[in-house]
Amino acid sequence: MTLKSVDKAVRVLNCFSAENQIMGVGKISLITGYTKSNVSRLLSTLEGHGCVERAGSPGKYRLGYRVYLWGLISGGHNNLTTIAKPVMEQLRDKCGEEVALYVVEGDRRVCVERVDSVHEIAKVAPVGTYYPLHAGASGRVLLAYLPAEKRQIFYRKKRLDRFTSFTITDRKALEKDLASIRKKGYAISKGEREPDAFSVTAPVSDARDRVVASLSISGPDFRLTDQKLKKYIIQVLAASEEISRKLGHSG
User: Fold this and answer.
1) How many CB atoms are closer than 10 A to CB 110?
2) Cys staple from 219: which of 36, 47, 97, 155, with CB 3.0 to 4.6 Å?
3) Structure pTM?
4) Could you say which of 21, 36, 63 is where a domain stops?
5) Are 8 and 34 in contact (CB under 8 A)?
């Protein structure tokens, strides 16, 4: 890409704002002065890099996951991980297990923050590690709250690989499970991605009522009891709601 093309791409990205979160090719063309065909080519390139994504209607776009991740990397005082970390530490102190935060990147999820378990034997999700969306409670929560059209794209692009005998690999069964997650507001997995491990996960929402992350309590199965599971559900829901509130979500 030439410097001129980079300049044009940045001008296209600058058309998006809090007031104009979804933009069409025609409107971007009017703002930038570029032809519609030029704008379409620029948007296609930006979409390929995750900088924009389609917003349902033909020719409509919004900023994509890559821009969101750049915000995380920039380390500003008001970003997701800065807000979430103290709440995650408090949650870890209550439950004793590892607490992790995931976001969607493309057709996978990535761990963007974690707080270590107090136990020597623990489930560990290193920051920056990628995991599947369909396997594990943290991934299924993110998948559950993706717009329906984005889930369809995911199904077309990704095979539902089996990691253990508990992994859901049937699309209809997975969609039923995702509907249940949206109804309950949380997800539980036991040995779904890795044997003998559990996860209890809830969604984190932002000021625009979008699920931007999943918050999880994870650990080895041998420490999980029915009583602890009930407690963890209450705790992870309270923590995710606190983070969401601090992100501007009104509930």
Assistant:
1) 19
2) 97
3) 0.69
4) 63
5) yes
Question: Both tokens of residue 121?
Answer: 């034997």
In a domain? residue 69: no
User: Looking at the 3D structure of the chain, how many domains does it have?
Assistant: 2
- Do strands 211-220 and 98-105 pair parallel, antiparallel, or not at all (unpaired)? antiparallel
Q: What are the structure tokens assigned to 125, written together?
A: 């999700």
What is the rounded CA–CA span in Å between residue 71 and residue 239? 22
Domain identity same for 23 and 127: no
Q: Which two tokens stand for residue 191?
A: 């040995």
Average pLDDT of the segment spanning 7-20 = 87
Q: Do 211 and 174 share a structural domain?
A: yes
Q: Are residue 22 and residue 96 in the same domain, yes or no? A: no
**Cα(62)–Cα(20) distance, rounded to whole angstroms?**
9
Whether 213 and 159 map to the same domain: the answer is: yes
- Alpha helix positions (H), the chain: 3-13, 25-32, 36-48, 65-74, 80-95, 137-144, 148-157, 171-184, 226-246
164-193 pLDDT, tens digit per residue, is 999 999 999 999 999 999 999 999 999 999
Q: Which domain holds residue 52?
A: 3-63
Kindly state whether residues 186 and 108 are assigned to the same domain.
Answer: yes
143, two tokens: 């998948």
In the beta sheet, which residues pair with residue 54?
61
In terms of Cβ atoms closer than 10 Å to its own Cβ (0-12, 13-18, 19+), residue 31 is: middle
Provide the residue type at 65 as one letter. Answer: Y
Q: Is the pLDDT of residue 208 over 90?
A: no
Q: Tell me, yes or no, whether 155 and 194 share the same domain.
A: yes
Per-position b or e across 45-63, b if 16+ CB within 10 A of its CB: bbeeebbbbbbeeebebeb
Residue 68 and residue 206 in contact, taking contact as beta carbons nearer than 8 Å: no
Using only C-alpha atoms, the chain has a radius of gyration, in whole angstroms, of: 19
